[in-house]
Design goal:
- α16 packs antiparallel against α17.
- The longest helix has 31 residues.
- This protein has one domain.
- The protein is mainly alpha-helical.
- The protein is globular.
């Protein structure tokens, strides 16, 4: 098994795409252990044959419809009306808009791709440094994987058997906390570097912007409200998000056209294809490590070091932060969750708590080279070298680490209520 992990590490270091890393590792293992090759296909199918995964393409589709249907522009305008009058207003708008958009897509990369061009252009036009504007866009977009609907949390729920409904609700408070911390940091920078302010809106203009902004905001409200009240499952909520965003774009805002739908569906399919391929092969990899009793071995090693759950959480956090520098977030969750979950649950760590912590770790990984996907997407948008964006983003990583460290030590603060009470609520999982 040691040779298998060496091959895995080498392939990752040389920059092979994660799908081929997982596939090559599994093929080598199955070939050297006289296991039938068809088992790989079987495990891939069984790993993807879960109803909850239907939520992923539907949420991605909802985000693409919002992009074409005019909801994104109205979200930015609504944020501008709310916080634009403050010093560093455009930076605050960037953060608030990303938090609102995150409530639909759950993806940081989608946030950078959709909102990034508009946000960065608006900030640079007001005199902000372009590198800082890009770094802040990446940082605010990183809230996306935390605020529901969170794709990493959905994936964690699938692989761990944890209630997806409880996980989505548990991500709300830490996501908001991360946004507040970033805004406090912007306030400090605004005072130090004399950031400009946006125009102040009159009462009449604010009242006019509220209905349009509320229309776009109704999507995350409906999604979260429906899940929390038990009216529909996370998967059904994803379908509702698609329907609401379509109706808004087609009949209310009238910016979505039937001719736009083929391109929207193609983009959704491309994103889904990459996610599904990784998930299928990660399921096979998870089977391999389970077959070799790797979780048990890791558990024995960690408990041999300490049985204090807080120290174990610290060790796991450090490991996940390092992994996040080299592996895409969802992939790291799919691979590491089966290995560490038994150990941490054995010492009293709530699976919901662990899920949020893992999502937070993968979020920070999006802002750190060499595999910071948000950095690469920002590079595509602005053509600024990745390392220059990364240097500017270091301070935002530190800002995000504040709520991260708080949440790591306290399982209750990130939900606002006791985790045990939350999971006891009859929330539908699928």
């Amino acid at each position: 098994m040691g040779i298998v992990f060496i091959i895995f590490a080498v392939l990752m270091i040389v920059g092979i795409p994660i799908y081929y890393v997982l596939g090559g590792t599994c093929l080598f293992y199955f070939a050297t252990h006289d296991l039938p090759a068809w088992t790989i296909l079987q495990r891939q199918f069984s790993g993807m044959n879960t109803f909850v995964q239907v939520a992923i393409p539907l949420f991605i589709l909802a985000g693409n419809i919002m992009d074409k249907g005019g909801s994104l522009g109205r979200i930015i305008h609504f944020a501008k009306v709310c916080v634009g009058r403050f010093k560093g207003g455009m930076a605050h708008i960037n953060i608030v808009a990303s938090m609102m958009f995150a409530g639909v897509t759950g993806s940081a990369v989608a946030d950078v791709a959709a909102l990034g061009p508009m946000e960065i252009e608006m900030m640079t036009e007001q005199g902000y440094d372009k590198e800082y504007a890009t770094a802040l866009t990446c940082a605010s977009a990183s809230i996306g994987p935390i605020i529901p609907p969170s794709l990493p949390l959905i994936m964690y729920g699938v692989v761990s058997g944890t209630s997806v409904g409880a996980l989505l609700m548990a991500g709300l408070v830490p996501g908001i906390l991360m946004g507040i911390v970033l805004m406090l940091q912007v306030c400090w920078y605004a005072k130090k570097y004399n950031f400009p302010t946006s125009e102040a809106y009159s009462i009449k203009e604010i009242i006019k912007a509220l209905p349009e902004g509320f229309g776009a905001l109704s999507i995350p409200i409906v999604v979260l409200g429906g899940i929390y009240t038990g009216y529909f499952t996370p998967t059904e909520a994803a379908g509702v998000a698609c329907v609401v965003s379509f109706l808004l774009g087609m009949f209310v805002y009238k910016e979505l056209k039937w001719k736009d739908m083929p391109a929207i569906l193609v983009n959704t399919g491309k994103t889904l294809g990459s996610c599904s391929a990784i998930f299928a092969m990660a399921s096979c990899f998870s089977y391999m490590i389970t077959f070799e009793n790797v979780p048990k071995m890791i558990s024995e090693i960690l408990i041999g070091l300490t049985d204090n759950k807080y120290l174990l959480l610290l060790l796991v956090n450090i490991a996940l932060l390092i992994i996040g520098c080299f592996m895409e977030g969802i992939s790291s969750i799919l691979i590491t969750a089966p290995m560490i979950l038994p150990t941490l649950t054995a010492v009293g760590v709530d699976p919901v708590h662990l899920g949020v912590i893992m999502a937070l770790n993968t979020t920070l990984g999006l802002l750190t080279p060499p595999l910071g996907l948000s950095l690469f997407m920002a590079n595509t948008v602005t053509k600024i070298p990745v390392m220059r964006i990364a240097r500017k983003a270091i301070c935002t990583v530190g800002a995000n680490a504040v709520p991260y460290n708080i949440l790591s030590c306290n399982r209750n603060i990130f939900t606002g209520i006791n985790v045990g009470e939350l999971t006891a609520i009859d929330l539908p999982d699928y």
